[in-house]
Each structure stands twice: as structure tokens, then as C-alpha cells.
Amino acid sequence: MQKIILALTIVFSIVIESALFPFISIAGVVPNVTMILVISLALRQNDEKAAVIGFAAGLTKDIVVGRIIGISGITFMLIGYFIGRYNHKIFPDHLTTPIILTMLGTLFHEAIYLLFVFFLGYQIDLFVAVSQVWIIQAIYNFLMVFPVYAAVRQLYHWRVMKKQY
Amino acid sequence: MVNELINLNDKNRIPIVLTIVVIVLIMIIGFTAQQREEMNVMERGIGSFFSPLQKGVTRVIATIENNVVTVINSSEIKEENTALKTENEALEQELVELQLLREELVELRSLQNTLNNIDRTIDLNPITANVIAKNPGNWFEMFTVDAGTQHGVIKDSVVIGSGGLVGRVYETGGNWAKVISIIDNSSSVSFQVLRDGTYQGIVSGSVTHELSGYLFDPDAEIVVGDQLITSGIGLYPRGILIGEVTEVDRTTDLLLKSVVVEPAVNFKRLDKVLIVNPRNVDE
Q1: What are the DSSP calls for A104-141, one per residue?
Q2: Contacts of B205 in chain A (CB under 8 A)
């Protein structure tokens, strides 16, 4: 049951990120809702489950809307794994934790993405990439931490999510 | 080797599995970095599952947006506006066609005798599709439409929006397809100036979603406000409006004249598109 709810949450996140958020993009930048979801979920899972969640979410997102398949799969999986592994050492219930992790995650995801795109031979203006895209992306992601984190917290208040199978 | 993996304690097992998965994913990235002939079954299935969901959300949002606009404007103004827009589009298209026809007539008559093969015009049975999702990433300008192989969409089909060229089909699934717009980083379109078809060049997109390009002839007389249409070299058939020149620069070191182009299509508000098959599909 827990697995089905998690899967539906990821599906919902990918659908609204690709179909709803383009309508309210800021300077063409759409918030990375699915990554924030992976981070928020990983704070409440162990490393193995968090890595699986990240992998599934990233790969599905790549397949549904991406051009190069696998990049989000790698970054989301690693983000999920590291948060899942060290979440007992940080304070998962404090709001600053997901905010800081989202900022780090954004930086990591965008850097890896840029690296692949660059080495696969696409022409990228690095100055534009950092100055225009990253900063707006970071701000928009920051704004989206609040609703996503609150929604995940609400999700874990459900009785079904507390049961262990 | 297998036994070793199994005997490893839990602490080491996960990092090893992760490393293997990362290596496999890097290989998949390598495979999918180039345009492929066909998607695999899993991709098609996942896409077909997501397509109606995305379509539903987009429909709802578009309806809400349209209604808000209607409330703000009075209904009369909107009606008039729509009528004028339609008329304007039709006239614009007509203008392009007429000007082309005039030039083409002279050109084609002289060519007809010497060439057996006459350039095909656009297939007259376009497929209508709705834009249902957009790639949320920053590096590619791609979107998803709700028509796929079931509707006859094939790879490299040309996508046209209201008023001009939108892009080409990148990959197709059963009831969905991914489209790359002309403002994408990797896209380039050969154009000619509508006013004088001898001035030709190439425009390409960029990370900042701007359309810019250069002319082959450094002495070409091109001014701000000139309209550019596809020249028929390459993938896109001739005579589709690309956009209007907003800036002309003469880069002395490159010995080229570069232009910045405002696309005819508003890529932020894409809703319905037409998909026509590429020219040499059955040749």
C-alpha cells in the first residue's frame, strides 16, 4: 500500500511538473518539483528505499519528458541515497533541512546535467547557464520546498503510511 | 564474484549496486543522446500512461486561463479579436504564398524542362494535435503532443503552429510524440528572406530560447522587419513563416551578417499544432 501511494505521488508530481508548471514558469524556468519530492521523501526513508525512489522518479521523468534518458535517473538516485543514508544525523523535521538540501540538490543536479549536455556536444554558454538559469532555478525551487515538504509531511500522517510490511 | 557480492554485508552492498546502476545509466545516456529510430516498448508504455493525465491537466488549466481572460475582457472585444486574428493569420499566410508563387512560377518554368524531380509541396493532410506537456528542464526546448504513431505521425515530421514554424517531431509513441522546437539549442533551420529569395542563411536556437542566425551572403540587404521563411533546404518544406528580423549585426571578424529573429509563433502559449509528414517520406 505504501509503495502504491509513493508511486502515485511520483506520477502526480511528474504530471504537474510537465503539464501545470509550464503555465506559471518564471523566465522559462520550471521548478524541479520531482526532485524536491524525492528529497522530502528521502528524509523519511532509509538509504536503500530512498535510492530506489530517486531512481524510479528520475528515470520515469526522463522517459516521459526528457530528451536524453538517464541523467535525472542518476542524479535523483544519488540525491536520494545520500539523504537516506545520513538523515539520522540531521534534523528531518525542521524546515531548514529540506531547504538546504534542495539548494544543494539543485546545484548537484544542474551541474551533472550541464556536464553531460556539454560532453555530449551541445553548445552551452556557461555564463548564461550559471547567471540566468541556475539562479532562477534555485529561487523557484526554494519557493516550491514549502508546499512539497508540507504535502509529504501530511502524507506521512496517514495511518497507511505508518504501517510497515 | 557473485558469491562475493552476496556475502558482502549490507553496508557495502548498496554502494556497489548503486555504482553498477550508475554505469548502466551512463550507457543508456550514451545510447539515447542521439536521435533514435524507435523508442522501446517500456518507454512507449510509460508515455502512453502519462499522456492522458498530462492532457487532462493541460485542458483544465487552459480552460481556466481562457475563462479568466474572458472575464477580464468583455466578450465582444474577445470575439472581435479572435476574428481579426484569424483573418490576420490567413492574410499573412496568403501573402507568403502569393509572393512565393510569383517567384516560383518563373523559377519552376525554367527548371521544369531540365529537371525530372520537382520539389514536393507540403502534404495536404495535416494531423492536428494538442500540446499536452513541456520539458521542464532548462537545456532543451521540447514539448509533448497528444498524437503519435496511431495517428500517422512519424519521426522528423514538420510541426506548424498558428502563424509559423514550430519544430520537428523527435520521437513518437503510440498516442504521443516529443517535438523539438526551432528555438532549441540544437535546432537549425535554413531560411530565405521573403522579400528577396536569393538572400539565404541559417537560424538556430539557443539556451536562452532566442532565435539567431547568419546570412550566407555578407552583402545581403536585410533590414529589421524583414520576414524570414523556410528555404526548403533540409528537413523543412519551403515557404513556412519562421519569424521577423529584430536585429541585424555585421560581425567584421566573421565576415558574416548575423540576425536576431523574433519567432512568428509564441512558444509560451502553444496550444494546437499541425503535423505534416516530411517531404521525402515515400521517395
Answers
A1: HHHHHHHHHHHHHHHHTT----HHHIIIIIIHHHHHHH
A2: none
SS3 A165: coil
Buried b (16+ CB within 10 A) or exposed e, A4-43: eebeebbbbbbbbbbbbbbbeeeebbbbbbbbbbbbbbbb
User: What structural domains does chain B harbor?
Assistant: 2-32 (no CATH), 35-72+119-283 (2.40.10.340)
Contact (CB<8Å) B207/A124: yes
B117 pLDDT tier (thresholds 50, 70, 90): very low
**Domain A2-162 coded CATH 1.10.1760:** yes
Mean pLDDT of A160-164: 63
Look at B29 and A137 and tell me if their CB atoms are within 8 Å: no
Measure the CA–CA gap between A35 and A109, rounded to whole angstroms. Answer: 9
Helix axes B75-112 and B41-72, enclosed angle (nearest 10): 130
| pTM attached to this predicted model | 0.80
Domain boundaries, chain A: 2-162
Counting every residue written for chain B, the total comes to 283
Could you read off the pLDDT of A64-78 as tens digits, one per residue?
Answer: 988 889 999 999 999
Cα pseudo-dihedral A106, A107, A111, A113, rounded to 10: 0
pLDDT digits 0-9 by tens, B213-269: 888 887 888 888 888 988 888 888 888 889 999 988 876 666 778 889 999 888 877
